[in-house]
């Protein structure tokens, strides 16, 4: 995969991070050598080294001198379960909320990718830049607000009044959930990585890819839900969106 973005080191980091999260690079396995990664991605070796150093800081990999870089266990917190207890959300409410957001967000990002004006594209770019600035400054307490701003911005650009009203009415509650779930440097960078990937699909005017990114996110989210809720959500989503194949992965 050749890198085309201007922030080359950040893009290499995102690609490797996603490979670890999705299991492409399994726990205990070795990443390809820095020379091989540089060749595959069409970047310099120092660029790859900088990305690996960032992965190491987040506890995703451990470089071993003379041996290579080993992938560490993926520490995906079971925070969604804890959040449901803190806010007294019943298992059925978890199912209902997840299914509604899955359907609405897929629709919204398709509309945004297809119809966003250049001014609206610029607003998305500014939000992504603001997220990165907050993370670079390690102002982690500010990130959750920028996260919800990202979703609100996409809803407004979609111009679907129902989705806009839903997010606006639930904004404070969703912000509390985000703050609870995304509360470590690793989870913050993971959230930012997903936002960048979705933004790239929108910038490319690719509704199918934007839809696919949202589906990937919900699959990762479902894997952190209680098994019964996971199975119920997967069954309902597959009955509505048979092309999703979510029950095969859940």
Notable characteristics:
250 residues; Arc Repressor Mutant, subunit A; Four Helix Bundle (Hemerythrin (Met), subunit A); 2 domains; two-stranded antiparallel sheet; 13 helices; 71% helix
SSE string, helix = H, strand = E?
Answer: HHHEEHHHHHHHHHH
Beta-strand fraction estimate: under 5%
Tally of domains: 2
Computed structural class = mainly alpha
What is the name of the CATH superfamily of the largest domain? GntR ligand-binding domain-like
Number of contiguous helices: 13
Q: How are the SSEs ordered, and which strands pair?
A:
Blueprint: H1 8-22, H2 34-41, H3 45-57, E1 61-64, E2 68-71, H4 79-86, H5 91-115, H6 118-136, H7 143-158, H8 161-169, H9 171-181, H10 185-203, H11 207-222, H12 227-240, H13 246-249
Antiparallel strand pairs: 1-2
Helix pairs in contact: 1-3, 2-3, 5-7, 5-10, 5-11, 5-12, 6-7, 6-10, 7-8, 7-9, 10-11
């Amino acid at each position: 995969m050749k890198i085309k973005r201007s922030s080359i080191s950040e893009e290499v980091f995102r690609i490797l991070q996603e490979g670890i999260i999705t299991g492409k690079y399994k726990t205990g396995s070795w990443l390809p050598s820095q020379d091989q990664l540089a060749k595959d991605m069409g970047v310099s070796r120092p660029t790859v080294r900088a990305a690996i150093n960032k992965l190491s800081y987040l506890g995703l990999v451990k470089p071993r001198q003379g041996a290579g870089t080993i992938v560490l266990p993926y520490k995906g917190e079971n925070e969604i379960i804890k959040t449901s207890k803190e806010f007294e959300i019943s298992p059925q409410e978890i199912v209902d909320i997840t299914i509604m957001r899955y359907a609405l967000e897929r629709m919204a990002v398709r509309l945004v990718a297809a119809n966003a004006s250049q001014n609206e594209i610029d607003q998305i770019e500014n939000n992504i830049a603001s997220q990165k600035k907050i993370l670079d400054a390690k102002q982690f307490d500010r990130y959750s607000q920028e996260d919800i701003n990202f979703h609100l911005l996409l809803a407004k650009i979609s111009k679907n009044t129902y989705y806009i009203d839903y997010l606006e009415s639930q904004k404070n509650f969703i912000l509390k959930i985000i703050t609870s779930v995304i509360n470590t440097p690793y989870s913050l960078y993971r959230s930012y990585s997903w936002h960048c990937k979705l933004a790239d699909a929108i910038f490319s005017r690719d509704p199918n890819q934007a839809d696919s990114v949202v589906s990937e996110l919900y699959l990762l989210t479902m894997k952190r839900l209680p098994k019964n809720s996971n199975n119920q959500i997967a069954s309902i989503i597959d009955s509505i969106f048979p092309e999703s194949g979510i029950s095969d992965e859940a």
